[in-house]
Amino acid sequence: MTGTTLAVRPSAVGSPLRPGIRRRRGRRFLYWTATHAIAIALAIMFLAPLIFMFLTAVMSSDQTLTGALWPSSWHWGNFWKALTTDDGVMLRWLGNTLIYAVLATVFMLISSVPVAYALARFRFRGRKLAFVLVITTMMLPPQVTIVPMYILWARFHLTGTLWPLILPLLFGDAFSIFLLRQFLLTIPKEYTDAARVDGCGEFRAMIRVILPMARPAIAAVALFQFFYAWNDYFGPLIYTKPETWTLAVGLSTFRAAHHVEWNLTMAATLLTVLPVIVVFFLAQRVFIQGVTLTGVKG
Amino acid sequence: MAAVLSAGPVTAARARRRHRLRVLAFMSPWLVGFSLFFAYPLAATVYFSFFRYNLFQLTPVGLTNYKFLFKDPYAWTAIKNTLWLVAVMVPLRVLFGLGLAQLLSKIKRGGNILRSIFYLPFLIPPVAATVAFVFVVNPGTGPINGIFAKVGIHLPDWFNDPTWTKPGLTLLALWGIGDVMIILLAALLDVPKTLYEAAAIDGANAWQQFRQITLPTISPVLMFSAVTGVIQTLQYFTQAMVAAHVSQGNADQAGTTTAPGYPDGASLTFPQTLYNEGFQQFNMGYACVLALVLFVVAMFFTLILLRRFHAFGDDD
């Protein structure tokens, strides 16, 4: 682009500079080709595992053990078979996963939005400390507190159920609080002040004025929470039993239960991945804005 | 604020009290959550670390659990593996993420599609990504090794070979580079264009511009990615566990493998020993010691991050 503007500059026309510019243009073209070639090659490599996964999912089970690339015959029924094998165990995992993900997301929103609002809007003693503690709990590995937590839930006779994974979200999620607060800080104070002058209480001001403006951030934390639950392996592994397994835990046992039927394992894996891919392409902007918000400002 | 508008000491005091109550009401979910799900279990972890506890019997054992840490071969294998991942996986992820971001920042047309493709694997559920990846690179079943063999490159049997297991996990982590890449891309696009223009006038070449302008400007974000990368790697669990599980193939139930860290302890990470001790062997007291080790190390890196606190855009 700058190359073209350079070329029409009067000083460059018919002057000794010309060969130099041509050379520079050539180099620019080479550079352009190289960047695009590398990017496309990398893109193919990034997609390859997913494509191989799909191709394997529609193979016959004998063919999956040959390391073949292309299915000799297409077995579309494998997806159905994976869903309904072992009396539809996958559907039960799916049901458990949905219970976990939906409730966790709803609970997280109810509890985290007011906290983020307070951290972004109110001035009070200990506010800074509270925010530091939020970041600390967000950063520390979940394994640090898992032993006493397990003992606590066992005492309430809730181990084996999904509740130990869901109930804590009624009490705020550090990551969501952090991300929402960062976003709320960008909304000018004048909006709530105006609402307050109109006689709105603080809570009403939050619900009526700020929440509609914070919709992108709320959508982002809701999506992140939903996918966190959908993808979570450590939590369900600790707390659930086979009846309450989620897709993540169930899928990790699928291969062992279907020794040589790699096609079914791949079909089940693909079925677990598919909702994530669909939602991602529908809500791409929300995702990418959300992730960017978690990074520091440069 | 309301307090400023109203006159008189009585109403001011009342307004202050109302303000305090309001703060308390808004903060209450987190206050309860923090005490119940963080402060209490952290204190309890310290307490239980002085006991032998299997969920039924609580026996005080003094420092035995701590002494055992130094003799426990599994713990040391796990510490070595986790350190390996911190030393290799984290820098590679930051470098690769920076490279991809730099590449994307140069591409105008089709950049959005490429960005989505590079970001996508990060979103794939870790269990699914690991199952798929282990299958694809398994020479017996997947096509990757076969394709490379055709051009004369012989790839190892990644997840069945102790020397290649951690490099295999690193490749898997590079596939899921999306998070690092997006943050760095945002940082790169934030660098003021005028800086590059000024440098170009001064005759700086692409490398000099990168060294003198790009790197210094995005260095806080690089450091953020590196430190959060270390903290994430300290809790690296799912992929290592599932990779061992899938490649071993004869595991009987979720979360168990006949020998932890298949093959030959190569995939045994620190959180996995904690899981094995606490939730397979039910040595809850000793698991608490392991949890405290994890806490101290993770806290160290969290403090590094918090020291650059202003980077989070705090207003005072």
UniProtKB/TrEMBL annotation, chain A:
Q: Give the matching PROSITE patterns.
A: ABC_TM1
Name the UniProt record assigns to this protein: Carbohydrate ABC transporter permease
Origin organism is Actinoallomurus vinaceus
> Which SUPFAM superfamilies does this one have?
MetI-like
- InterPro entries listed in its UniProt record: MetI-like, MetI-like_sf
Annotated transmembrane regions: 29-55, 98-119, 131-153, 165-184, 205-230, 262-283
Q: Write down the Pfam families for this protein, in alphabetical order.
A: BPD_transp_1 (PF00528)
The entry assigns this protein to a family as follows: Belongs to the binding-protein-dependent transport system permease family.
UniProtKB/TrEMBL annotation, chain B:
The record's subcellular locations are: Cell membrane
The residues that cross the membrane are: 23-50, 83-105, 117-137, 172-192, 284-306
Give the protein name, as stated in the record: Sugar ABC transporter permease
**InterPro entries in the cross-refs:** ABC_transporter_permease (IPR051393), MetI-like (IPR000515), MetI-like_sf (IPR035906)
Among PANTHER family, the record links this protein to:
ABC TRANSPORTER PERMEASE PROTEIN, ABC TRANSPORTER PERMEASE PROTEIN YESP-RELATED
Q: Which UniProt keywords apply?
A: Cell membrane, Membrane, Transmembrane, Transmembrane helix, Transport
Provide the membrane topology annotation. Answer: Multi-pass membrane protein
Q: Which family does it belong to?
A: Belongs to the binding-protein-dependent transport system permease family.
Q: Which organism is it from?
A: Actinoallomurus vinaceus
Pfam families, per database record:
BPD_transp_1 (PF00528)
Per UniProt, residues of the ABC transmembrane type-1 domain are: 79-305
